[in-house]
């Protein structure tokens, strides 16, 4: 599994990170909860306001639309969360 998520810290810090996932069908999940693209900014803003050191891992299926993955990355950065890693699954 190629990943830049390891740069987010040790395993304990990674365990606290929120995972945003994009499936091959373009579905978006916040941790394991399916959400819409419209819900994402609100969720990220809540994360930033309730977490002292928010970390996000963006996970995309091998067949996921890269535009959706980049859109998630853009939203995370817009909110001001700077600790972001990307993880992909090979198929």
Rough outline: globular
End-to-end Cα distance: 10 Å
Estimated structural class? alpha/beta
Q: In sequence order, what are the helices and strands, one letter per element? A: HEEEHEHE
Largest sheet: 5 strands, mixed
Q: Name the strands of the widest sheet in spatial order.
A: 3-2-1-4-5
Name the average pLDDT: 86
Number of helix segments? 3
**How much β-strand is present in the residues?**
25-35%
Question: Which stretches are low in confidence, meaning pLDDT under 50 for 5 or more residues running?
Answer: none
Question: How would you summarize this macromolecular structure in one to three sentences?
Answer:
This protein has 3 helices and 5 strands. The chain is an alpha/beta fold.
How does this model look, in words?
It is a single chain. By secondary structure, this protein is α/β, with parallel strands linked by helices. The chain is 34% helix and 25% strand. The chain has one domain: Nucleotidyltransferase, domain 5 (2-Layer Sandwich), CATH 3.30.420.270. Strands 3-2-1-4-5 form a five-stranded mixed beta sheet. A hairpin with a 5-residue loop joins β1 (18-22) and β2 (28-30). α2 runs parallel beside α3 (66-79). The mean pLDDT is 86.
